[in-house]
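May I ask for whichever protein you like with its backbone structure tokens?
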Amino acid sequence: MCDNHHTHHTSPHKGLEHEGHDLEHKNWSRRSFIQALGIAGSGSMFLGNHFISASAPSPLTAAIAAAETDNILILIRLSGGNDGLSTVIPIQQYDTYANARPNIYIPESKVLKLTDDFGVPTYMGSLEPLWGEGQFKAVHGVGYENQSLSHFTGSDIFANTDLNTTGFGGEPTGWMGRHFEDLYPDYLINPPEAPAAIQIGNLANLVFQGNETNYAFVTNNVDQLQQIAETGLFYDIETAPFDNCMYGDQLRFLRGVANTTYEYAGKIHEAYERGAALQCVEYQDNGFARQLELLAKLIKGNLGTKVYMISIGGFDTHGNQPIVHERLMSNLSIAINNFYEDLACTEQDEKVLSMTFSEFGRRIFENGSNGTDHGKAAPTLFFGSGLNGSAFVGDHPALDSPNSRGNLEYTMDFRDLYGTVLAEWLCVPRTAVEQHLLGYQYRAIDLGFNCSGEEFEDIAMDNDPPTFPDTPPSDDGMTPPDPDLVNTIVHTPYYPNQRAPHIHLEMPFAAHVDIELFNILGQKVGTVFNEMMMEGAVEINIRERMRDSLSTGKYIYRISVADQRMSKSVMIM
């Protein structure tokens, strides 16, 4: 085809400079050229055996590069649809939650209570230090009207912000891509000094996609980016197999892409070398931890990139959810904690905000495979010192009023969070933000940072520490004001069988009796008994009273009678 085309010219060997080619190509727009190369749809291409990105910056990254801020944003994609009710447990709706998931709910003894109303599973306990230091916010019920339950469509909507997207089409550009397209109309001629965005994982996401190209420096996986960072090499430009029959400006475009990519590879390497010398934390050896470890080195090495996107997969938990979700969120929590501890060593943690997103949540009710099916609203998690305080933000969806398919209804439009991050963290003007949200007039949410100076609407904010007993329960019991009263009340734990520990209680008089159960951290896990009791004896089956929701372990029960309290340890088998 190429040879036949060149036979129409008198000097086939000078085809690149031929007047016919030049005149013909003047009628080509840059976009049609990129489309002809097959780049427009993917934002990337293979050159030889090497995957390269057709661009280095990204729309959210370009306005960002121009904005007067050194703040950095990390997007964390939870691929597969994260189960929000296994991430943030609504303590005030706990009975409804547990009844909907009799085989997979998080037992109360395994809920880390961060406020009186909300907690996280204890396997996310590595986030507790971040909560205590004001570096963790969770926004409830994030979604949108008529939310798609398709992995592909849902992913596209969270990337392109077009709620009319279907499996047959939708807005082809991403919220970040549109932003950078305005700032870098010709990035090959005048590229930013450092990649505007870096994305690990090149499949199925439009976040950085513009009309003509993808604006992120994309690598297939963390291994590829690690290799670039360690060596500074992406591929050899000189031996790149360019086709000699390409038009001159086509060839120059491809070489421009190659040169930009190669130049960025060198800058990534230089930053990596500087940052590696400053690492002060040991990370776990798993894919997600390695991504954050690498990002920490690039940030510490002052690469200059302002937006990163990383991924952790496996959240499509139709089966075996308790084991899978525990592994995923445990890895995420430990890595996030290590990451911010690492950045704090060089006092760079205040400039880095991380936020999670997923294509949808999951249903309230468990399925028949110890899992949950595709649902709607789910929480978005934010991390970083820039949050200036930890809190649960917004209104948690009501579990007792799901839609007809058992889905939570959203209470926070995801575009409000995107708009807030762009305007208040990355300091992009509201007019530009709304343009890149396809005209959506976002509601700014108080997440703890404020670049625009706008006043935020009042919104539910739960950050009060949980209330615990005035005097922590102990194995020795507490000493109340009237020891004679205590001595007249007999309470003894005993074990008629291995699964049903009982409390034998003898009352010398009629009184209201309240028995609460605490874990070994002093956190209340439930009420065992709360009744008026006449004089006499009673046997109280702890596990039966707690709806068989307790895991094996040591607990402490506390008996309150009038203003007197006494406690004793008990082993739940």
Remarks:
- The CA atoms of residues 66 and 308 lie 17 Å apart.
- The chain is about 30% helix and 20% strand.
